[in-house]
Specification:
The chain has 180 residues and is mainly α. The protein is 47% helix and 0% strand. The chain is built from 6 helices and no strands.
Length: 180
Amino acid sequence: MLTDETKPADFKKSEAADYSHIKGWGIDADPENDPVYPMKNRNNAEHEGYAWKRPAQQNDNVEILKSVERPNLTAVFGTASPPEGLNGKLRRFAFKYSESSYGRWLPLVLADRVGEVEGIIDDLKKGHVPNIFAERGWGSEWKHNRTNFLLKVAAVAAVAVVAVSVLSSNKENGDNDDGL
């Protein structure tokens, strides 16, 4: 198991490296040109790195998805919703890509929507009918943002009407092609 074993000394090693090729690097290095002065009392303690004691490593008894940039496991992490079902497969796929890639974020957005539908299906399987109107906050939107809510309802209704008309016209055309 990989763990985050980074020590303050590791950061000091990287200070000696030359980053001058990076545009804007060190732009905040001049204390005379510090926009937060005198609001922040500088004592250079922040340059020593973190001095707190690392928490004990939490046991990883559920699957934890890790970034390709930072494959180490942090000391503590959430275990409330481990990846499972179709949305879990989408999340595993997304975590194969860099954090700077659409290949990561678009599948994660899709996984959130799929997870929402899977949650509704799970509720129905357990005999609980979800109150989608309340869970989506539509009551609040109706009360405080009625115009936008009505626009959303009109847009969804228009898309539904177009979809039904396209699907029904394809069905009628298919019936005529068969000559029946």
